[in-house]
Amino acid sequence: MSTIDSLATNLSEYLESDQINLVRRAYFYAEQAHDGQFRRSGDPYVTHPLAVAGILSEMHMDPQSLVAAMLHDVIEDTGISKAAVKSQFGDAIAEMVDGVSKLNKITFSSHAEAQAENFQKMALAMAKDIRVILVKLADRLHNMRTLDVLSPEKRRRVARETLDIYAPIANRLGMNSVRIEFEELGFEALYPMRSRRINAAVKSIRGNRKEIVKQIQCALEACLEREGMPARVFGREKHLYSIYEKMRTKRKSFSEIMDVYAFRIVVDKVDTCYRVLGAVHNLYKPVPGRFKDYIAIPKANGYQSLHTTLFGMHGVPIEIQIRTEEMEAMANNGIAAHWLYKSHDDTPSSAHIRARQWVNGLLEMQQHAGNSLEFIENVKIDLFPDEIYVFTPKGTIMELPAGSTAVDFAYAVHTDVGNSCVACRISRRLAPLSEPLESGQTVEIITAPGTQPNPAWLSFVVTGKARSNIRHFLKNQRHSESVALGRRLLNKVLGGFGTQLEKVPEDQIKQVLQHLNSPALDNVLEDIGLGNRMAHVVARLMVPEHDDVELSPEVGKERNSPLAIRGSEGMVMNFARCCHPIPGDPIIGHISSGRGMVIHTENCNNIAEIRDNPDKCISVRWDPNVEGEFSVEIRVELENERGIIAKLATTITGAEANIEKISTVERDARFSIVNLSLNVRNRIHLARVMKRIRLIKPVSKVTRVKSRKIVKPLKP
Q1: Which domains does the chain carry?
Q2: Radius of gyration of the chain (CA)
Q3: Residue 31 catalytic?
Q4: Tens digit of each residue's pLDDT (9 = 90 or more) over 202-233
Q5: Which of 58, 76, 113, 164 is labelled catalytic?
Q6: Is the dihedral of CA 227, 232, 234, 240 positive or negative?
């Protein structure tokens, strides 16, 4: 749009005269505000907001969006405040303008963080009014069209940001035309030589293709005319970025990609779509497994169409999309088509509802993300266009990114379902939680009260929501477990002075926190639990009237009972893999920095050098009510015999023990050694398992592996 008059002429096609006057008033307001400002190209600055409003007018956007487009840089680049915009144009427009304004005035430690913070503000603004993102996309589109005036480095940075963030958002909102232009302009700016070469290659074969395209188009049109179905048939050009991406990801040559001919058939109503599908399948043979019905099950961004691939003349593959005029508008303009096809009762379209659900999902993810970079990483995962469609047991369709697992599905249903998920049924069969889901499957989540997310889930979940919720839960769980262990360790030392943490005066605790430069007592307790701070040093500060003698390990041992280990302490209590302690074994606790407490058997070789160091080790014992299963290693020497391993496994499971790992070493042709890693409850349970193994006839010897030397011994 070159002038406000030419924009007003275009707006008169769908807006009232008073609405056009509001847009005019916004233009003159912006012109005055930006007076004396120029773009890099040398044009007056107001040409940019005018062009952004022009892009939105092509989408038939409402007058408020057009006014926000005119004013979107006013708060950021001129001396005009949000309050001034509000007094002139009202609350809604002022909020939209503020939402679109960038965060240039804040200094960031890195560009990635600046981009992330910007994106977060945008997500928040979108939640209030989804039109903000449409103005933002139009703003970015005009900036991409005028990239030439920037330095090569800045051009590449803006192009990379557009391809990483804005093109996927346009795709997620179903705005195909905007997405394609983003990708084409971004590709040209980021990889100018690759873009030129592919463009030249496309032009060179266009002449040869033209004849074939015309023949196929004529055949399709004649077929539909015979069947009495009015339709528009046109060939689809592949755009350069999609050719490049297919060559790169699918490792295909240019000629392989360009061998496929694509057509779109646009009809009047949904019923005709399916009739056209039958007609084209009669004309050319369909390729099995290549039919997709996005009309019955639309994509998450509201896209609807029938897709099929046919074997054309001379075996040429033909890709065909069949859709209605309304679906065509939705495919090109996506969420913006809501304003294009706005009904009088103001009922939001299904695409509008889907887009809002996505925005609300962003907000929830933002609350749980540790920082803006983690948030943007999660959002980028969710913006990937490849999706699968699965059913809940009640038949509700849920869209998930390709590669999603039952855990992703559980978190998509509800955060609480994800947190308490223990197993799943995929199409009525029990399946591992890590199994990737496929379109059409029915997924049922089995939950149990008191369960919690497993850290191992992070290795296979795909969605940002699942990842951020698991991290959030584990972060909180580790914190609370560290605080609980730190409290127990501190109370154990304070018990040596005849006091407890609860009895230490509030003033004394405040002094200690000030001395340690810590904001809260929980932070100190967490550091003690994680092994980053010594419990007796903190205790000494809390009970200053006691002298150093009373902090000696001898006094501590006399006046304190050992710390009781319950087996349910969680992530900050680990059991050593060198000696595998189990209830009934004499044990000792090693305080390991950052890991919390590691439990060893008392005679473990790996802590021999530090056993008497009170800074590194602590006296512990098993709680009488210890719970859970503990790993232990045993070594079985036996005679080789057919089926002996199976017999050994049956005997062990019959004694209610689980086999974690099994390996065999052949000593000679007659004898073998079997190393087993088992889960048992305590020493009595282990003795019962070993007794049963000894009763197997070919077994000559059963021993428990007491202590293995680790590769890096612990240093005092």
Answers
A1: 4-190 (1.10.3210.10), 194-340 (3.30.460.10), 630-704 (3.30.70.260)
A2: 34
A3: no
A4: 888 876 677 888 888 899 999 999 989 989 99
A5: 76
A6: negative
